[in-house]
Amino acid sequence: xxxxxxxxxTGSGDSLVFSAxxxxxxxxxxxxxxxxxxxxxxPAGVRRVSIDLSGIDRFDTAGAWLIHRTARSxxxxxxxxxxxxxxxxxxxxxxxxxKAEHKPVPPRERSPMVLQLVRDTGEAVIExxxxxxxxxxxxxxxxxxxxxxxxxxxxxxxxSITYHLEYMCVRAVxxxxxxxFLIGGxxxxxGAYQLRQFGAEILSIDLAxxxxxxxxGLLLTAIMVAGRSGSAITAEIGSMKMREEIDALKTLALDxxxxxxxxxxxxxxxxxxxxxxxxxxxxxTGAGLVAWIYIDMPPASFIPYLRSAVEINTFMVGxxxxxxxxxxxxxxxxxxxxxxxxxxESLGRQTTASVVKAIFMVIVLDGMFAMFFAAIDY
Length: 378
Fold this sequence. Notes:
This protein is an alpha/beta fold. It contains twelve helices and four strands; from the N terminus they run ββαβαβαααααααααα.
C-alpha cells in the first residue's frame, strides 16, 4: 500500500499549491479523505489555490470525487481554484464527476391542451413524412432487386418464398374462411331484414353479392392479413435486428433487403389475391345459407340469381386491388421491423405501430380505388 503523503501544500502568502501524489483510488480513499480534509484547512488570506495532479500514479472515480469535492469547498469559501497537470484521462473523470453533481433539469411546464394537441399533430405529420421517405427508399430497393431476378434468376429465393407463402396463405385459409362466412351471412340477414318492409327481400342477394365481391371480401381479408402476417413480419425482422443478425448478414456481404424483405413481399403479393378469392366464396356461401333459411331461397335459385346480379368486373375489382394492398402491408411491416431498437419495449411498440398503420393505409387505399373505379365507371 502506498504510504507517501497524498497531498503536499506549498506556497506562501495568498497563493498555495496542492500537489497530489501516489494512488488516488477507492482502496486508498479513507486515508486520502483524511489528508485532503486536513490540507483544505487554509490560513486566512489565501485567495488562490492551484491543484497539481501531475504526481498521481493511479486515478479512479473515487479520487476524482475527492479532488472535485475539495475544489468545490474552496470555491464556496471564495477561493479561486485552478487545475494543473490534469491530462486527458483525468480530465474526463473529473468532468464526469462534475456532471453527476449537477442538479437535474426541472421538468418542462405542461402547455395548454390546445397547444399540446397542435404540437403532437405537427410531430405526427413530420413523422409521417419521414415514414413516406423511408417507404419510398425501401420500395425502390426492393423493385431493383426484383428486376435483377430477370438477369440473375439463380438469385430468386424460391425456398424462402414457398415457406412464407405456406405460412401467410395456406395456414390463414381456415380463419379467413370462417370469418368471411359469418360476415356474408350477417350482411344477407341484415339486408333482407331492412328490405322486407319494402317487399324487396330478393334484392338483398344483389346487396350481398356486390358488397362482398367489390369491398368486404378484400377489405376484411386485408385487415386480417395485416394483423396476422404483418405483425409476424415486424416481429421476425425486429427480433433479428435486436440480436444483430441483420448486421451479421451485412458482414457476410448479403443484402438484408434481398434476403429478408423481398421474399416476404413476393409471398404476400401472391397470398392476398388467393385469400381474397377464398373470402369471397366463403362469404357468398354464408349469404346463400342465410337466404335459404331467412327468405326461403334454395341454392338452386340463389346461384342463378346471383349470377345475374353481379358481373365479372364486380369480381375483378376486388382482385385488382389485392396486390396493391399486399404490397402496402408488407412494406409497412418490414419498415417497422427495421426500426426496432435494442429493447423488448421497442419491439412491442413497432409491432403495434405496424398493424395500426397497415390497417389505416388499407382503408385509405380502398377508398382511393373506390373513387377511381367510380370515375371510370367500372
